[in-house]
Design brief:
six-stranded mixed beta sheet
Length: about 500
């Protein structure tokens, strides 16, 4: 019965109540009982205390050597973001099988320590862990590679998959398509996709979404139509991909058509993600009031992401009044974040309203609202390098800054001028330009020029939206140095080639 409750999404908390009743009746739980009740605690929204009680009883009843049970306890701690506790359980395990190592990798990914997940794969593959990676390990590590933009490591995982006979597994092929797309190699993703003998809706959706995120809207729509011709029924995620393709490519008429056909032809009611794509599409072409009215017309409450999408459009088009209204909605939801106020500051600074900039900055300081530091990562020879603004931690920092200064001189000769509106302090133009000079993605690009042969594609992943100045910098750099530069920011991919960007300067 406890196992049955552990499989339920709705009644999982009843499993813990049954466990307590079992103990009251004097029946001693065995490792399976503990494992299933722990899974109930993982699914329960307010079951941290119950899970701690179960773990204490596991230790008290002498099950310290049961690796499968302790792996479930690890998963419990990981699910509730108690990273240190999960690692402590792992360290105390007397025997660690592949499942335990997989849970550790999952724990690293859930807690934002994605690079450490790659280190664990290294240990497992080298034989130092005592356990070999299996198909689940590969699936998790491909997710980590996608998050980091670690293409070379992802290629290594693909070779491991092929060498160990996992190449026929469709879920791994789907994960590889997503990995290549997320690492800026949509061509390789498409090549793998076309070679798959059995493609399901997940395969098609991954390919459509990959094309969409790279700005290939027409190609994504063609893939969707081919999917229908092949008799594969789309699901909600497929339509999110198709509408995203319309959004990234500014295809308003096509977007409305697919949005309408969802329910009428396929019986899929638009969810919040589909509305969000439409808001983004309308915002992209400057129809901000129409986007706002669409949000208000929804039968369910908009989430913070949707309001932030509209706020981003207000930043692009300089719509001050609507931007202020969107912030009010976020405050009502008690969901405002530092990034929202940065967008509002961008709107004010773009129209030169420095009084409002100072006012918002003061208010943020009083409320203790701190911005998330920008962080960019890039992979060179299988090693992931991380940069933050004004970074001094990299072992080759002196060479990187010298290279960045040299790049700056070359770009100025070619006509590059710093976009000082990206700097939100009311200071002189020269001081603003200096502040912008050492953003994390610029440091990453300089390192890419320094550390890779001429003609090598530079791939950078950033945790935040890239600023206008860094975007202009990358465009100019791609032309002057004849490099393809692919930056994946929080919103989308930017593929810079010969002084142009795939996003057409909207993001």
């Amino acid at each position: 019965m406890i196992r049955a409750y552990s499989l339920s999404e709705t009644f999982s908390e009843e499993g813990f109540n049954l466990y307590r009743e079992m103990r009251r009746k004097g029946i001693t739980p065995d490792p399976l009982s503990f494992s299933f009740v722990t899974k109930c605690c993982v699914k329960g929204s307010s079951s941290v205390l119950e899970g701690l009680q179960v773990h204490a009883r596991v230790l008290r009843d002498g099950h310290r050597s049961d690796s499968r049970l302790l792996t479930t306890v690890m998963d419990f701690y990981s699910s509730f973001k108690r990273f240190d506790d999960a690692c402590k359980v792992f360290d105390e395990m007397s025997h660690r099988d592949t499942i335990a190592w997989n849970v550790l990798i999952s724990c690293y990914i859930r807690n934002g320590r994605t690079g450490d997940a790659l280190v664990v794969f290294d240990m497992m593959e080298s034989g130092h862990s005592g356990s070999q990676p299996d198909d689940v390990t590969c699936l998790l590590v491909l997710q980590a590679c996608s998050n980091l933009g670690a293409l070379e490591f992802g290629e290594r995982v693909r070779r491991y998959i092929q060498e160990h006979g996992y190449g026929h597994l469709r879920n791994l092929c789907n994960a590889l398509i997503a990995m290549y797309s997320r690492c800026g190699c949509v061509g390789k993703a498409y090549q793998l996709f076309t070679g798959m003998p059995n493609r399901d809706v997940v395969s098609w959706t991954a390919m459509i979404s990959g094309l969409a995120s790279h700005g290939h809207g027409r190609e994504a729509i063609d893939a969707f139509r081919e999917m229908l011709r092949m008799g594969v029924a789309p699901d909600e995620q497929t339509f999110t991909g198709v509408l995203s393709a319309c959004s990234h490519s500014g295809l308003v008429d096509e977007g409305w058509m697919f949005f309408d056909h969802m329910s009428k032809e396929f019986g899929i009611l638009p969810n919040i993600h589909h509305f969000g794509c439409m808001v983004d599409l309308l915002g992209r072409v400057g129809l901000l009031d129409q986007a706002y009215q669409l949000i208000l017309s929804m039968s369910f409450s908009p989430d913070p992401t949707m309001w932030r999408t509209l706020l981003g459009a207000c930043r692009i088009h300089g719509h001050v009044a609507l931007g202020e209204r969107v912030i009010e909605h976020l405050i009502e939801l008690k969901a405002q974040e530092a990034g929202d106020y940065v967008l509002l500051l961008n709107i004010y600074s773009s129209v030169g309203n420095w009084e409002k900039v100072i006012e918002v900055r003061k208010w943020m300081k009083e409320k203790g609202i701190q911005t998330t530091p920008g962080c960019s990562t890039m992979e060179v020879k299988g090693e992931v390098h991380e940069f933050v603004v004004d970074d001094l931690s990299h072992p080759r920092k002196k060479e990187i800054y010298e290279m960045l200064d040299e790049i700056g001189k070359q770009l100025k000769i070619a006509g590059y001028v710093a976009e000082v509106t990206s700097e939100l302090h009311n200071s002189g133009a020269e001081e603003k330009a200096n502040r912008l000079s050492y953003h994390s993605e610029k440091l990453a690009m300089a390192f890419g020029i320094l550390a890779t042969p001429p003609g090598t594609t530079i791939r950078v992943a950033k945790n935040l939206r890239t600023c206008v100045d860094c975007h202009n910098f990358a465009k100019m750099l791609s032309g002057v140095y004849n490099r393809e530069i692919i930056i994946r920011d929080r919103n989308r991919f930017h593929c810079f080639r010969e002084g142009q960007c795939s996003c057409n300067d909207y993001w």
